[in-house]
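Hi there, hope your week has been kind to you so far. Please have a think about how the structure follows from the sequence. I've dropped the whole record in just underneath, so have a look:

_____
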Amino acid sequence: MLLYVTLGTNDIDQARRFYDIVLPLLGYRRQRYSEEEIGYAADGDARCRLWIVTPFNRRRASSGNGSMVALHAARRADVDAFHAAALAAGGVDEGEPGLRPFHANFYAAYVRDPDGNKLSAVCETPE
């Protein structure tokens, strides 16, 4: 359904440092980088699916209230590692790793990146 997602940043270098640390823990790697944008893709994907960008209109980037990007995690340990790495890299806790009431195997953690964008890592595999 989704071709790609973009999140705004006000500091492309700070965003690169954050995402370069947390996304590889979920199997996503930086594929593109410029002064305006950074593109990440899953291993083996020919297309970047997550873009961190400076706004095209050159206005200040802001996070959306009620907006969130959920990233797939293969294992619960990957969710735990993502959450810990995000906090160590300057992210803010929005929900520690754990089971959620959405269904019996919905294991997730929630963080905000340095620009305030909300992210989650989710594993739906039983363990």
Observations:
- The two ends are 28 Å apart (CA to CA).
- The CA atoms of residues 18 and 31 lie 15 Å apart.
- Residues 5-56+67-123 form a domain with the 2,3-Dihydroxybiphenyl 1,2-Dioxygenase; domain 1 fold (CATH 3.10.180.10).
